Amino acid sequence: MLENIIRLAHTHRILFTRNVFSARNPMLKDLLKLEQPRKKPRVLVFVDEHVANENRDLLEDIMGYSEAHAEVFTLVDCPIVIPGGEGCKNDFRLVECCWDAIHDAGLDRHSYVFVIGGGALLDLVCFAASTAHRGIRQVRFPTTTLSQGDGGVGVKNGVNYFGKKNWVGSFSVPHAVVNDFAFLESLPARERRNGIIEAIKVALIRDAAFFEEIETMADDLAELKQTALERVVQRSAELHVEHIATSGDPFEIGSARPLDFGHWAAHKLEQMSKFTVSHGEAVAIGISVDLVYSRMQGILDAETCERVLRLIERIGFATYSRHLLENGRSGEPAILEGLEEFREHLGGELTVTLVPRVGEKIEVHEMNRVKILNALVELRQRQQA
Ligand SMILES: NC(=O)c1ccc[n+]([C@@H]2O[C@H](COP(=O)([O-])OP(=O)(O)OC[C@H]3O[C@@H](n4cnc5c(N)ncnc54)[C@H](O)[C@@H]3O)[C@@H](O)[C@H]2O)c1
Ligand SMILES: [Zn+2]
Question: Residue 95's Cα: distance from chain center in Å?
Fold first, then answer.
């Protein structure tokens, strides 16, 4: 056997700004100048339809920016507008549409695809871009609290297939992520709230001080105040990327997925609700299930469990959904199938992250099904109380 180790180093960049396409904002042109290719890079832009509708000047600003900085890059076509939201990940033809656009624009491996939108559109377009020519550079511009603080700053993409979340996709480190806080202002309230739960999640597994900070900001967060949201999104993004960059397993070769704390139930719940429960709402419930479960298993003390559930509720999230106790084909609540699907997604051993203390995590390889059901019943009673 001839064995060689192939080491790859990637640079992950996040830039925080406001109004990135304002002609006076030099951030983007400076970013493109970082690598000085002999030829001016070609850039193709994809935009989430809702973002374009809510930010009327955006498309013009993008074109104006490219004209103002024509010496740095070439915008090869008008921005391509695609309806965002989870639906775009359920329609594989849209992947082909992105490939068509990339092909027609003659992009090569020195070109850039810019994607401006929510996490769903980022997942779709980055999947297409990372498979076209085996990978075209991506600059992501997440426009929701959830994607700016979590999904959009990560290294994964993908679409839903076989009715399963993110069944097809790839790992791909973006050239850069531009978190433009001005985009958050056009978000509907429900979407503004969604990102807060991923911040709570990452604080719970990594940073007790940040968790306390979120508690002190809870009233402002419940009112979805911009300054509080920006702080929480920024720290959440930092912690997510810090984990990806330093945990030693950015492409999830092992079985541990600590950033997916609360997600085994969340992914299944999203699917069971036919995606009427949003990812953020599902994660709030998934975390609640795992907290109550952990308390029942003696992993977490009752006081901490209650403290976290209260925070989740104060921010305005539900901790239970009527879909949780719906039966699946086996006659058992379908949510339990989520455990096997979670394991299947990675292969290998079931590994679920739980939180024994705020800021710390443990991994378990078995979950007691009866106790999970007891936790669901308790959360139902809590909601009815
Ligand atoms: N790749 C990853 O690592 C990763 C991690 C976490 C989540 N995700 C995925 O991200 C998706 C959820 O992303 P999301 O929470 O950003 O929601 P989303 O992309 O579904 O967007 C929610 C809605 O808001 C609209 N929208 C987006 N930005 C807007 C803005 N600024 N103004 C007005 N409307 C706007 C969208 O068009 C959509 O209708 C899920 O598919 C989830 O699986 C991926
Ligand atoms: Zn998530």
Answer: 19
